[in-house]
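Lay summary. Proteins are chains of building blocks that fold into shapes, and those shapes determine what they do. In this project we predict the shape from the chain. Here is one chain we studied, written as its sequence of building blocks.
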Amino acid sequence: MNRLKIAFLWHQHQPYYKIENEFVLPWVLLHGTKDYYDIPEVLKEFPKIKQTFNFAPSLNIQLEEYISKKTVDIVQKLTLKKADKLSEDDKKLIFKYFFSANFHNMIFPNKRYYEIYEKAKANNYNLNTFNINEWRDLQVWFNLSWFGYFSSQRKLIKELKNKGSNFTEYDKQILINEQLEVLKLIVNQYKTLKNIGQIDISCSPFYHPILPLIINSRSALENLPNIKLPEPNFNYPEDANKHISDARDYFNKIFDFEVIGMWPSEGSISNDTLDLYIDNNVKWVASDETVLFNSLNFGNHLLKYFPYKYNKEDKEIVIFFRDHNLSDKIGFQYSSWNEEDASTDFINNLIAIRNSIINNFGIEAIDEAIVSIILDGENCWEYYRENGIPFLRSLYQKISENEYIETVTFSSIVENQTIKRNIKNISAGSWINGNFSIWIGHNEDLIAWNFLSKAREEFERRKNDIDINTYNEVYNSIMIAEGSDWFWWYGPEHPTETKPIFDNIFRYYLRKVYNLLKIDYPKELDKPLYEFSDLENLNNLSILNFIEKELLLSSKKIIYIENTATMHSIGEVIKSINYIVEENLIKMLIDLNSNFNNFSFFKIFNADYQTQLIEINKHNIHLNPEIINYTFLKTDFKLYIEIYVSKKIILNEIIIFQYMINDEINAKFLEI
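And here is the predicted shape, written in a compact code that computers can read:
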């Protein structure tokens, strides 16, 4: 039987959160006790399942600092403070951080945590709401809620959960110690699974930079030809090389074997980047299907299911391309499904892919094909029941029993399979829209790049005049600032309450560069960089004169993208809808995913699903006569539809938005 090969890669990554002697955000610790331990642990029940786990070194060095107690985070400090000694500022911070958990899966199921949450909310988070016992119980329950399905089965954690309330200060000490004990298990857990051949381990560049932009920021022009670039231009291939080589050296040391594969940060690759990977003896990398199709400029969508060789002189590297539809199903859709339905749907998709490959290329092509499922390995699981373990069990069981599919690691393909297809040129891009707009496409991004470029230029000018220790410390600060995460949060794409914290970390390391070089830093680095940028959501839109300001300033707004934090769904098309209802007219401004070429059509219907108001596809625009006014604008960064619709044809005050992407039809409903 020719089995279709499936390669899972779970990407584990956190930016470097350290300022002075504190991690200013707790996500390494919390995901460590919940996800980094849980997700590989379930594999022990399914020996046929093979997977790849990818780590960013910036995550692992923080795990080491937690375990050694070299550094603590802000939540640990707040947890260990005696409840009767909490200051007003402490209580404000506890309210800020200690409900940062998924309500349905982490707060509501835990009776005491839910009681405290409801009381805080009912009293508008008044600092005088709680007595000492309630503050202490909140300190404990937030941390307890971040233990995963398997880590919660530890004896002391079970005892604390069973106790439920009226915790003591000693209980808090037990809890913090248990967190660190779980962190200590992680590296050996992965080593064991690696040694028995069930998993492979890959890594990302050290501080998770967008390497094509580090090599030369002009690479952004390949798919964003009108973009503004940093001044001076950022052009430091030696930094990119160091991120790669340092990452491989680090993981070769801690895992005791040679890492041969890498997931480039955000799937970002280019010809120059691939050349560097080859120079560093990396055997395989992966990116997104959009990058492949941008590179080929043509082709059957099934071409993403084959690995490709890229050559540099007499050396080569293998590239795998991510199926973003199936990957996003796990990352964004299945969490709201029944586990059995979700796993069945996933298997059905795989069987359909197998059949399509056979129908298009013949049965022998199955031996060559591979479906790459690559996604965030940490942030999606809090949206699943019991941290996703019931879903994974159902999925792994079905895969294990299915005669038409099997799981493999990427390294096993490179080592054991002849790669028949070649690709000579890669269009520079990432897994999001096949470009770098998230990290360099907004005015806030550009401001940040300008300051980074100037700091790097100062280091380049003075690097031969400083001692080796200072050199290493300055270079490390530059590399931290080159990380992708700071730029991820600049701009409007991923709103978050912690944006000021990410901005502060970025500015901290830039100031540190100047301080170590013993020169004055730009005083602008004392203020949030986003304060120097106009608000994109209003000012940039008002520059586009076709848009009425009232649709931005006086309208109701529906936000459809739910991944407003660390994840980004490539499959989502509608970002938001602003609308105004007047006596006889409905005005709408629809903000769409700018990667319009990835979906087949976008339609708007009234409530009977029969009357079509508008259809936009790759070739034509079809309008209903009742559309009073219409504008369609596509730029490098934005895709907008503005329409005025006669109210008389809207039934039940409901409008339906329908679109097809990757052969799958989706719908959204707007109730006016």
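What the prediction tells us: The chain has 25 helices and 23 strands.
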